[in-house]
Design a protein that fits this description.
The structure holds 2 protein chains of 2 kinds. Chain A is an alpha+beta fold. Chain A has 14 helices and 12 strands. Chain A has helices spanning 2-13, 28-34, 60-69, 108-126, 138-147, 152-161, 165-177, 189-192, 196-209, 220-233, 240-250, 259-270, 275-290, 337-340, and strands spanning 17-18, 24-26, 44-46, 52-55, 76-85, 94-103, 131-137, 253-255, 298-301, 312-320, 327-333, 349-355. Chain A is globular. Chain B is an alpha/beta fold. Chain B folds into 2 domains: 3-97 and 202-227, Periplasmic binding protein-like II (D-Maltodextrin-Binding Protein, domain 2), CATH 3.40.190.10; 98-201, Periplasmic binding protein-like II (D-Maltodextrin-Binding Protein, domain 2, 3-Layer(aba) Sandwich). In chain B, the strands form 2 sheets. A 7-stranded mixed sheet of chain B has the order 2-3-4-1-5-12-6, with helices on both faces. Chain B has a 5-stranded mixed sheet with strand order 9-8-10-7-11. Classes of the chains: A alpha+beta, B alpha/beta. At the A-B interface, helix 2, helix 6, helix 9 and helix 10 of A face helix 4, helix 5 and strand 9 of B.
Chain lengths: 369, 228
């Protein structure tokens, strides 16, 4: 704990505001952003008037909420230190974390590199020298699925699987079979006809028979539009080339110094233009190469990400020694989170956290100032 | 010490449970006093009979404070995430059948499968500014089933009764509820997703794991199984 405090203090000396986060937090923001499934992994309680509270499972959301509530000027970097609480089936439930959240820096490449650089500097300060960083970039994948002409429904579906190898494979297998999301024959004729106004009117009728409220739930127009889209998708087949390109892309796993070349080669081979996403990736790499990094410890893996819908762009994890399972640092860009939490303007953001308990014994030996 | 067998304390479940033991040659004698909850079983030694509500039976079996019980599989699976660590489902008993299902409005013509629901749930927030809401009393079963399908973007609204009315009342978008014939669902213009049956539940004879060592428990289980 002393070392964690010292690191936090060091971050504050380097210009971060100290985030003051209560242990007891309202549970709703966590469940709204991460989904109901989180309920099984956090500790929930309630107070005498029935408010649902939880022990903080992480620092990012409370830090963002604090930032929004007090309308603090951006850009602003926060440092935090403390215990987070999560249910683990086997083992402990309390974990010590230190980290930085960087809110509102509109120069994304610069903030990305700064975040990586802060994480690496922190590890150096802790005397952790043998580590390896894996980077992923969701924007590149999003750009790919949109460039290969996949139907909208499939684009969304694949993006949702990004970072989850099993689910991605299942989705690709399904695409391979026939590219069909659903069969049109279970659709009413007035959907297959494809006239949105007509379909909307029919859905409205069904809704009013069932006394469904007109406000607050799904609208007849959205239901009708999605039904028509689904019926049309029945006729969609994905070209073999496009599928092969998807698989080829997801296999990219190279040292970061070769990443730009690998992406360019991919574009040349497949005749797919990754556009702005590739340009941004190259820009970020240029900054990374200029900064004080040992680039040989960083690799880029095209399929790497985390399946939470507020993550965008860069995602990274750092592993100690040769342990490729348990990361000691996790970080990433979450440009959508602050608006999901109620910010009125777009606030781009990136952060990382160090899991102190996962760092192996070396701590303390080589601490340098 | 005798092993404790618990049976549902009222209704059709009670009658049918008693019938099972009669058929297995171990007739149950009801308490003489209506307010008493202790019964007797003959034709087997070392077993005591207690009547309890079906959901208490599920809870006490998992806690290990009773040895054997007859209750609905849904109630046991709803009580803890991994019931098989605490109890053993000895046998289905052929009554008390009901399915725990996912019901969505018939007006949702675009949604027939869990994959459709996944699509709708994940874009719900961007369309409507909130998560998809599910009305249910089955927290555990719902969370497990949705997690198995990789769906996390939803919220549960607790509903302890008349769940099928929740969509019309604007309390939730869809429901997870129990149904035996589906008629209540149809009356409320709800349909079951094609792959949306979470559990086909019926009354089970269930033993608490530690009780499996007990000889009377073993004999009772074997005789019930043989009689079905």
């Amino acid at each position: 704990m002393e070392q964690a405090q010292a690191l936090h203090k060091w971050f504050v000396e380097r210009g971060c505001a100290a985030a003051d986060v209560d242990v007891l937090q309202p549970a709703d923001p966590f469940l709204e952003t991460a989904g109901e499934d989180l309920r099984r992994r956090i500790f929930i309680t309630s107070n005498g008037v029935g408010d649902m509270l939880c022990l903080r499972p992480e620092f990012t959301i409370p830090t963002c909420l604090h930032h929004i509530k007090h309308s603090i000027q951006t850009p602003c970097r926060y440092s935090y230190v403390g215990t987070v609480f999560r249910q683990h089936r086997n083992g402990k439930n309390e974990f010590l974390q230190v980290g930085i959240e960087d809110l509102g820096n509109h120069d994304a490449s610069k903030a990305d590199v700064q975040s990586l650089s802060d994480a690496h500097a922190a590890l150096a300060k802790l005397g952790v020298d043998n580590h390896h960083t894996v980077l992923g970039d969701r924007t590149l994948f999003a750009s790919l699925v949109s460039a290969i002409g996949l139907p909208k429904g499939w684009q969304v579906r694949l993006l949702r699987c990004f970072g989850e190898a099993d689910q991605m494979q299942a989705a690709l297998d399904k695409l391979k079979q026939n590219g069909v999301i659903a069969s049109a024959n279970e659709m009413p004729e007035w959907v297959v006809a494809g006239d949105l106004d007509l379909a909307e009117a029919e859905v409205s009728k069904l809704m009013s028979i069932a006394n469904l409220p007109e406000q607050g739930g799904r609208t007849a127009r959205e239901i009708a539009a999605r039904a028509i889209e689904k019926a049309e998708l029945d006729a969609t087949r994905l070209e073999g080339d496009a599928l092969a390109a998807l698989e080829k892309f997801l296999e990219i796993d190279v040292p970061v110094k070769d990443a730009v070349a690998a992406l360019t080669a991919f574009e040349t081979d497949t005749h797919i233009d990754l556009g702005q996403a590739r340009a941004d990736f190259a820009k970020r790499y240029k900054l990374l190469a200029q900064a004080d990094f040992d680039l040989s410890t960083i690799s880029y893996r095209a399929s790497f990400g985390r399946r939470l819908d507020y993550y965008t762009g860069l995602f990274f994890e750092i592993y100690q020694d040769n342990d490729a399972q348990n990361s000691i640092v996790g970080g990433g860009r979450y440009d959508h989170l602050l608006s999901m939490l109620g910010a009125e303007v777009d606030i781009p953001a990136i952060g990382f956290s160090i899991d102190f308990d996962r760092i192996k014994a070396k701590i303390g030996k080589g601490a340098k100032s | 010490m005798s092993a404790i067998l618990t049976l549902p304390s009222k209704g059709r479940l009670k009658e049918q449970a008693i019938e099972i033991f009669s058929n297995a040659g171990m007739p149950i004698e009801l308490p003489e006093d209506d307010r008493s909850y202790a019964g007797k079983i003959s034709g087997i030694k070392g077993i005591e009979v207690v009547f309890m509500s079906a959901s208490e039976i599920a809870r006490e079996l998992i806690a290990g404070s009773i040895h054997l019980g007859v209750t609905g599989e849904d109630l046991v699976r709803e009580t803890v995430a991994r019931p098989d660590e605490a109890v053993e489902f000895i046998t289905h008993l052929g009554f008390g059948g009901a399915d725990v299902i996912i019901g969505v409005p018939e007006a949702w013509v675009d949604v027939n499968t869990m994959a459709d629901l996944d699509d709708v749930a994940s874009s719900f927030r961007s369309h409507y500014g909130r998560r998809l809401r599910i009305a249910t009393k089955y927290w555990q079963l719902t969370q497990n089933f949705f997690a198995d399908h990789g769906i996390a973007t939803y919220r549960i609204v607790e509903s302890l009764g008349a769940t099928e009315g929740a969509p019309a009342a604007g309390q939730a978008d869809i429901i997870v509820d129990i149904t035996s014939t589906g008629s209540t669902l149809r009356a409320n213009q709800l349909k079951i997703l094609r792959d949306g049956v979470i559990l086909k539940s019926e009354a089970n004879l269930i033993a608490s794991r530690p009780a499996l060592e007990n000889e009377a428990v073993q004999e009772l289980c074997a005789r019930v199984k043989a009689s079905l």
